[in-house]
Amino acid sequence: SNLPVIFASALFGNIYMWSQFLWSRYGESSWAPYISFLGNFTYENGRLIPVGGLAYYVISPTRGFIDVIGNPVRYLIYAVIFVVFCVIFSAIWLEVGGLDPRTIAKQLVDSGMQIPGFRRSERPIEVILKRYIPAVTILGGLIVGLLAVVADFFGAYGTGTGILLSVGIVYQYYQQIMRERLEELYPGLRRFLGG
């Protein structure tokens, strides 16, 4: 799913926004040492540019690969933080979205599926699914995080998150159109597909 990338991007955007707000409001006050953890900024061409703190590391390269070559440590840290948060949000989404092994096992048993050689119960299916679902979840979060980071590094039009979201939406429309065409060609298939 693309949701871990969307959540990580939203978190990074919020960190940047709040650190910028707090620094512009209280950057010169006695709160400055605490705010500098979130971000230090300088004015450049009428804009606040991060020069330190967490905000410095959660901003994707603005000029693509030129920025990455110019400051590789900063963007390596950005990549690691982004991918780690994608994996974390992927695991959270697994539990919140009802995609955990127990819920999937219940859905499979309720639909009448059974694993040959096992009782028709949720427990054996859950045990088998527990071998695969957590690993695939972590791998999926890692892969979509890396895809988004690589697209950001090469200055892809619309950022890596935007590309992943666009591809997901286009593919969803493609599936919907194919399903509707199948239902038009084979009207008896509509009941089978749940229509």
Secondary-structure content class: mainly alpha
CATH superfamily: SecY subunit domain
Indicate the mean pLDDT: 85
Low-confidence stretches: none
The CATH architecture category equals Orthogonal Bundle
Helicity, in percent? over 70%
Give the distance, in angstroms, between the N- and C-terminal Cα atoms.
25 Å
Structure description:
- The protein has 195 residues and is mainly alpha-helical.
- It has a single domain, classed as Preprotein translocase SecY subunit.
- The protein is 72% helix and 6% strand.
- A two-stranded antiparallel sheet has the order 1-2.
- β1 and β2 form a beta hairpin.
- The longest helix has 32 residues.
- The relative contact order is 0.12.
- The model has no long low-confidence stretch (mean pLDDT 85).
Explain briefly what this protein structure is.
By secondary structure, this protein is mainly alpha-helical. The chain has nine helices and two strands; from the N terminus they run H-H-E-E-H-H-H-H-H-H-H. The chain has helices at residues 3-26, 32-38, 54-57, 65-70, 72-96, 101-110, 122-153, 159-185, 189-193, and strands at 40-44, 47-52.
Key features?
195 residues; mainly alpha; Preprotein translocase SecY subunit; two-stranded antiparallel sheet; 2 strands; 72% helix
What is the topological layout?
Elements: H1 3-26, H2 32-38, E1 40-44, E2 47-52, H3 54-57, H4 65-70, H5 72-96, H6 101-110, H7 122-153, H8 159-185, H9 189-193
Helix pairs in contact: 1-2, 1-5, 5-7, 6-7, 7-8
